[in-house]
Design goal:
The protein has about 120 residues and is α+β, with helices and mostly antiparallel strands. It has three helices and five strands. The protein has a single domain, classed as 3-Layer(aba) Sandwich (GIY-YIG endonuclease), CATH 3.40.1440. The chain has a five-stranded antiparallel sheet, sandwiched between helices.
């Protein structure tokens, strides 16, 4: 069962995603996704923000080779939130806005080039 979570980007714009439990099978549609964890009912932490041409390929078929997935899983990821966005330029714009606004820990690189 999916439910909605709103996330705010650096621009101040709010985006409403559908959140699904980790392990959900997704269709081959494009969009922006957030690996997240529920802290308390109604309180969420974004762990990783990404975009893809195919949720099915990125979040199902290729999930175990996804570096951000491993980092988010180690930080207690419980859900994957998705927003369907058809155009590549718009996906990249939304992903960048959210990464800058949410500062997700599994996206961040330290000064030595490794991930925290």
């Amino acid at each position: 069962m999916a439910f909605n979570i709103s996330w705010r980007g650096a621009s101040g714009k709010s985006y409403t995603f559908e959140a699904y439990p980790n392990g959900t099978q997704f269709n081959a549609v494009s969009g922006v996704y957030i690996f997240c964890r529920q802290i308390t009912p109604g309180s969420w932490e974004a762990l990783y923000v990404g975009e893809t041409q195919s949720f099915e390929q990125r979040l199902n078929v290729g999930i175990h080779s996804h570096d951000g997935y491993g980092r988010a899983a180690r930080r207690g990821m419980t859900h994957i939130a998705v927003l369907v966005v058809a155009g590549e330029a718009e996906r990249l714009r939304i992903e960048t806005d959210l990464r800058h606004g949410l500062n997700p820990v599994a996206n961040a690189q330290n000064v030595l080039g490794g991930f925290r």
